[in-house]
Amino acid sequence: MTPTTSPVSDLGALRRHPDALAALLAGGGTLGSDELGWTTRALHVVRDLPRSPHDADTMSALARAYTSARVLHGAVVAGTIALPGVVGAGRAVRSGTRPADLADPDSALWRLADRYLDGSLDGGTRTGHDYPVEVQRVVVGLAELLSDPFRRAGDALRASRPELVDLAQDADELQRLTWAHLRLSVDRVLPAAEVARYRAEPLRDATSTLLTAVRERTGVALPARIMQRDDWQSALDAPRQDESHALFVAPRFFVENAEIAVLYGLGTLLTRRWLGQPDDVATAGAARHGAADVAAGTRRLTHTARFQSRRGARPFGYRSFAEFLRTVRERASVATSAADGAIEWHDAADEHPRGWCPAQHRYVTEAGAAGPGRRDVEDWRRYGRQQHGVEPVLGGDNPADLLGAVVMFTLLDEACPLRPGANAFDAIAGGAP
Q1: Which of 13, 33, 172, 189 could disulfide-pair with 217, CB 3.0 to 4.6 Å?
Q2: b or e along 408-417 (b: 16 or more beta carbons within 10 Å of the residue's beta carbon)?
Q3: Is 156 left (phi over 0), alpha (psi -120 to 50) or beta?
C-alpha cells in the first residue's frame, strides 16, 4: 500500500450537497457533527503544513479541502446573511427607497468606491477611473442600501447563533490557507513575473490559458478561483479574518457586489437598446426578464462572465467602464429579442454553476421553501404588476434572484439616471435605438 504523502490526503471532503446545507440553515436548522468536526480537523491539519511546495497528490487534496470549505462557508453566508439581507433590501426598494438618492460624494462608501474603481496598474496605485458619475452614484447608492439589512443580518446571527459565526470564520480561514498553500506550490513552477504577463491579456482567454499552464506544470487541475488573486502570501501570513469579512458584511463587499450587480442590470438594458427596442418595450421586457438576467450573471464562470468591467485576468486590479461597454456590445452582437420579451443569449451554453458562491446556493428544496425568500418573490411579482403591468420572472431559489429584482427595479425607477430614456442612459448608449 502506497503511504500518503501528507496528512491532508486523509481529510476527504464534505458530502452534503451545498443547496441542502444552505436550505437547512435558512430554515433555522443546525449542522451535524460531520460538518463541524471536518472543519475543525481540516483547519488544524492545514495550519501545521510546512511552507514548502507540495506534490501533486497533496495539491489535489488541498483543492478538495478548499472546495469543501467554500461550500460550507457559502452555505452559512447564503442562508443566514445573504437571504435576509436581500429580502430587507427588496422591502426598502418596494417601499419607495431610491438607492441613487442615498449616494453621498462625501461618504466613506463613495471614497471606497473610488479606490475600488481606480484599482491598480502595473503593481502601483492607479489614479482616476472612467466610470460616469451617474453609474458610480447608483453603485454607491446600492451599496448603501445593502449595508443596513446585511449588517442587521450579521448582528442577528451573532446574537442567536454564535456557533455559526465561529464556523464561518473557521471555513473562511481554511479557504484562505488552502488557497495560499496551492499558490505557494504554483509559484515555484509559474513565477509571479510570468503570471503577470497573463494578467495583461483579455480576461476570458487569459484565464483559460493560465489554468492550462498551471495544470501542465503541476499535474493538477485547479479551480479557476485559485488563480484569481495574487495576494496569497498575505493569506498565508494572516489567514484568519475578522467576523465582518468572514460574514461578508464589511463595506468593501457592498461596493464590489453593487458594482457587479449594477453593471449586469445596465448591460441588459444596453443590450435591449442595441437590439433596437424602443424605451417602452425595453422597460417592459426588463421588468419581466431583467431580474433573471442579473441573477444569471452570478451563475457563470467568473472568467467567462457575460459583461466584464475587468481589464486583464485579474478580478480587482483594474476595472474599466470602457471594457464593460466593449463586452456588452460583443454579447449584444450575437443576441436576439424573443417574442415574449426575453433576450436570447446565444452563448447560454456556457452558463452553468461553478464555485458555489453564496449567491448561487439554493435555499428552496423539494422539502420546502425558506419562508422569507418565497414571500419576497411573491411581493416582487405583485410589485412588477403594479408598477409596470408585467409579472417578473423569478425563480426565487437563491439570493441572486432576489438581488436581481432589487437591481432591475432600481434601474427602471422613473428617477434613476440609468433607466431607458434618461439622459445619462442615452449618453452611455449613444442615443436612440
Answers
A1: 189
A2: bbbbbbeebb
A3: alpha
CB half-sphere exposure, 47, CA atoms < 13 A:
12
Residue 122, Cβ density class (10 Å: 0-12 exposed, 13-18 middle, ≥19 buried): exposed
d(CA 341, CA 348): 17
Residue 341 backbone zone (phi > 0: left; psi -120 to 50: alpha; other: beta): left
d(CA 323, CA 325): 5
Q: Is 17 helix (H, G, I), strand (E, B) or coil?
A: coil
Backbone angles phi, psi at 368, to 5 degrees: 145, 175
In which residue are the cell numbers 408585467 written? 390
What global pTM score does this model have?
0.90
Q: DSSP assignment of 141-162, as one string?
A: HHHHHHHHHHHHHHHHHHHH-H
CA distances from 107 to 89, 113, 228, 377 (A): 20, 10, 30, 32
With beta carbons less than 8 A apart as the criterion, state whether 363 and 83 touch: yes
281 CB-near residues (< 8 Å, 6+ apart):
272, 341
Give mean pLDDT in consecutive 10-residue pieces for the chain, a chain of 433 residues: 59 78 84 84 93 92 92 90 93 96 95 88 77 97 97 96 94 96 94 82 75 93 85 94 94 93 95 95 96 79 69 67 91 92 75 59 57 81 95 82 94 96 95 56
Helix (H) or strand (E) run with residue 234 in it: helix 232-237
Contact 300, 267 (CB under 8 A): no
